[in-house]
């Protein structure tokens, strides 16, 4: 498979890096499906509540009112707000529709705010803040630079609402080439796996939650 034919997202590429075999069985062959856990369902519910509050002031459910003080500054930000904003790029890194047949990479920003030549991207997190991973923000910033040519600077952050913790990052249009390079290693590994039809299992403590029951390392 040519590199231009591979379609990916940040979560998919991360799944591949964690375990190529699981990625192949779940994402490519679709022999198994990841079941939604209670934590995942909770995260989806919270994301929806936060999105609606920031977007149009929909009142937060009583058990989520404790997040209000973290969200109000986002509501008050100046600029055009794009909640749950879908973005996609072709292989030559040109903007395209999210469901375009020739899309190469795509993702959804929880909140994108554009004001003149400066953007802000926020990703809501409902889990632990012990191991923050800003790479998803980095990819969202790269796609935003492509979709909004006027943007020169993007300030981004992971908002861990349960911990009132905001982990920030900054991205400049001048550094786009080096920012893309951070993804090329795993993308090349993914291309070679497709080309050689080689999908090695990577046993980790996460094997206990893996849906691929046919794997020799599965812990059912």
Walk me through this protein's architecture.
This protein has 220 residues and is of the alpha+beta class. The model has no long low-confidence stretch (mean pLDDT 94). The chain has helices at 10-18, 20-28, 38-56, 68-75, 135-147, 176-196; strands at 80-89, 95-96, 105-115, 118-125, 153-160, 165-172. The two termini are 33 Å apart. The protein has a 6-stranded mixed sheet with strand order 2-1-3-4-5-6. Strand 4, helix 5 and strand 5 form a beta-alpha-beta unit.
Oligomer: single chain
Low-pLDDT runs: none
Rg (CA only): 19 Å
**Can you give the helix content as a percent range?**
25-40%
Strand order of the largest sheet: 2-1-3-4-5-6
Going by helix content, strand content and strand pairing, the class is: alpha+beta
SSE blueprint:
Layout (H helix, E strand, L loop, with lengths): L9 H9 L1 H9 L9 H19 L11 H8 L4 E10 L5 E2 L8 E11 L2 E8 L9 H13 L5 E8 L4 E8 L3 H21 L24
Parallel strand pairs: 4-5
Antiparallel strand pairs: 1-2, 1-3, 3-4, 5-6
Provide the descriptors you would attach to this structure in a database record:
220 residues, single chain, alpha+beta
Concise description?
By secondary structure, the protein is an alpha+beta fold.
């Amino acid at each position: 498979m040519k590199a231009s034919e591979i379609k990916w997202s940040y979560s998919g590429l991360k799944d591949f890096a964690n375990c190529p075999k699981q990625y192949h069985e779940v994402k490519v062959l679709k022999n198994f499906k990841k079941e939604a856990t209670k934590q995942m369902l909770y995260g989806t519910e919270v994301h929806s509540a936060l999105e609606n509050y920031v977007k149009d002031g929909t009142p937060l459910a009583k058990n989520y009112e404790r997040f209000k003080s973290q969200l109000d500054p986002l509501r008050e930000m100046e600029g055009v707000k794009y909640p749950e904003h879908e973005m996609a790029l072709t292989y030559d890194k040109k903007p395209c529709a999210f469901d375009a047949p020739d899309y190469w990479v795509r993702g959804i920003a929880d909140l994108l705010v554009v004001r003149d030549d400066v953007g802000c991207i926020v990703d809501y997190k409902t889990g632990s803040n012990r191991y923050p991973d800003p790479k998803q923000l980095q990819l969202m910033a790269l796609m935003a630079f492509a979709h909004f040519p006027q943007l020169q600077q993007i300030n981004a952050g992971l908002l861990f609402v349960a911990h009132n913790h905001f982990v920030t990052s900054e991205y400049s249009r001048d550094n786009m080439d080096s920012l893309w390079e951070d993804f090329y290693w795993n993308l090349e590994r993914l291309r070679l796996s497709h080309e050689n039809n080689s999908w090695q299992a990577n046993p980790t403590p996460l094997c206990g939650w893996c849906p691929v029951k046919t794997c020799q390392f599965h812990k059912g």
